[in-house]
Specification:
elongated
């Protein structure tokens, strides 16, 4: 009777009866199974107390989370080291993820691999390459969330990365190269002649060309320095200056409004919309360099690749020797 009285006093203000607590204790013991078998009263109380403590901690942790939208923008904000163009692309992909109905409000900790795959499929399903990039960004959001203790695992890790079949990029024919060069000789495009030669005869990416400064040119040794801050991949390299003979000294510059001028030059040369393949100048350079010089090590250094595998699989389209010769004759 005394124990009943004590129990009632302990349960004052709690909307549970002694039978409720007995039922809960029994369910806990049954769930613990072998862990609770054969224990005396004190050992069993200690086990139940520890189980309760661990359960409370788990529930508190589960409550400490944010929505996918909050986590996504917080992870973007943490990437202040990115270049403006990379940051813009990141924000674009995050918006596409969050536009999927219901995705933005999901608690980060509760999101499952199945939900992640659904979000990615609805946001990027039509484009395998966009799916891969979107997956990488969603993965980074969860990685950032784990650091902030908003979630305990990264469900995106359980989503396979689809294989993306790259389309073959055919190098520009010598006649197409000449058309671009002739267009660059027009008065309104003369200040783009250097840029065009850097892309065609140096394999420098358009974005890298647009970032070049006057101090990056070593005219005495006829080379241009692609610094880590300029390079797409963050690695520096030097590239020989070719194809600049005959360009007026005052036109050896990287002009203001470069992207617009490069777009206008292509249009004036007859390339409109999807008829122009991005990075085709770089592919043209690699293909004709390999066919003419037959020096993979030198090409790898000039392209800024860590190994030759990407050159072999992505950049080196078969090129006729006569076309390669005509291309490099144009650089002299």
């Amino acid at each position: 009777m005394k124990s009943n009285h004590i129990a009632k006093q302990l349960l004052k203000g709690v909307s549970l009866s002694q039978s409720d607590l007995a039922r809960l204790a029994l369910e806990a013991i049954e769930s613990l199974g072998d862990l609770a078998e054969g224990l005396d009263r004190i050992e069993l109380i200690t086990l139940l107390r520890n189980t309760l403590r661990e359960g409370v901690s788990a529930m508190k942790a589960a409550a400490h989370t944010v929505s996918l939208e909050e986590a996504a923008w917080a992870s973007v904000e943490a990437r202040r080291d990115l270049r403006p163009t990379s940051r813009r692309d990141l924000r674009h992909f995050v918006r596409r993820l969050l536009k999927v109905p219901g995705a933005a409000v999901l608690p980060l900790r509760a999101i499952t691999p199945t939900q992640c795959k659904k979000i990615l499929t609805e946001a990027f399903g039509a484009s395998p390459s966009s799916f891969v990039k979107g997956r990488a960004i969603l993965h980074s959001i969860f990685t950032y969330g784990m650091k902030q203790e908003w979630c305990d695992s990264n469900p995106v890790s359980r989503i396979d990365v689809p294989k993306v079949k790259e389309k073959a990029i055919v190098p520009l024919a010598p006649a197409e190269v000449e058309k671009l060069k002739e267009t660059a000789q027009r008065p309104e495009f003369r200040d783009m002649q250097l840029s065009l030669s850097l892309m065609l005869y140096g394999g420098i990416r358009p974005t890298e060309v647009s970032r070049l400064q006057e101090s990056d040119f070593d005219w005495e040794n006829k080379q241009v320095i692609i610094r880590p801050s300029t390079s797409k991949t963050g690695g520096g390299r030097t590239v020989p200056l070719r194809g600049i003979k005959g360009i007026r000294k005052k036109d050896l510059i990287i002009p203001q409004g470069w992207n617009r001028k490069w777009h206008d030059l292509r249009r004036a040369a007859g390339y409109r919309g999807k008829s122009w393949v991005p990075d085709v100048c770089r592919h043209t350079f690699a293909s004709y360099h390999a066919a003419y010089f037959r020096n993979l090590a030198a090409l790898q250094l000039e392209m800024g690749h860590r190994d030759a595998s990407l050159l072999m699989t992505r950049y080196m389209a078969p090129a006729l020797k006569k076309d390669a010769e005509a291309f490099w004759q144009g650089a002299k």
